[in-house]
Amino acid sequence: MPEKKAKLGLVGLLLSLLLLYGLYPLLRASPLGGLFVNLFLSATFFAGVYAAGATKRGMIIMLFLGGPAFVLAWLFQLRPWTPLGVAAVLLSMTFVAYMIYLLLRAIHLARRVTSDLLVASACVYLLIGLFWAFAYILVVAVQPGAFHAPHVAQLIQEGGVRMVGISVFLYYSVVCMTTLGFGDIVPVTPIAQTLSSLEAIVGQLYLAILLGRVVGMYVAHSTTAAARESGDACAEEECIR
Asked: Where are the domains of the chain?
């Protein structure tokens, strides 16, 4: 597919992720909360597939992973059955992980700082948070008391059954990833504590490594451009002489 389509897909992916993080928590009190999260996640899936359209192989794999996750998520919306929800979350995690891989590979192959690079970098950061939010849902499905948060106890307990609590886990994921540490949601089991610690480490390492990568590319590109301009100027002087 043309590069322009991949660029539009990246922008769409970033916007859908921002909507998922920003709007769904405001709508979670609605009776249609589960419907909203499915709509936002569906937009993320389609945008991810569209962004991967730059390569045929990438699009096929994204459809193979995202298609079943998309179908199971909507089936779960119609019939809240725990095994169905767990399967949907597992497939969604795999889909998100592959999206992260594709974007990280594109960032690694980039040779200069562009708007596409910056958008892809932002998408990876938000996708990391979404991946961990899904992981927390699975933890709650296996261990209902894995997190302690009296003010949102019902949503957290429902997170592993109806998945309507994903807004809480997205919020908690951001708190861990950015090391804010508000303390309003507390992991109380070893697996929950381990995942929380790992997310904080990954989030900080990603920002540090990405910043070093971007600065390195910018300096290298600027140095090359300056050397080229200097060489052209010298060549012109030789011609004048």
From this structure: 3-240
Give me 188's structure tokens.
């109380």
**Helix/strand/coil for 2:** coil
Instruction: Kindly state the DSSP code that residue 207 receives in the 8-state scheme.
Output: H
Which tens digits make up the pLDDT trace of 34-61?
666 777 777 777 777 777 655 667 667 7
What was the pLDDT predicted at 105? 86
What pLDDT score was predicted for residue 233? 47
Residue 179 has pLDDT above 70, yes or no: yes
DSSP string, 5-20: HHHHHHHHHHHHHHHH
Amino acid identity for residue 118 in this structure: L
R_g over Cα of the chain: 21
Q: Where are the alpha helices (DSSP H) in the chain?
A: 3-22, 24-27, 33-51, 56-78, 82-109, 115-142, 153-159, 166-177, 190-240
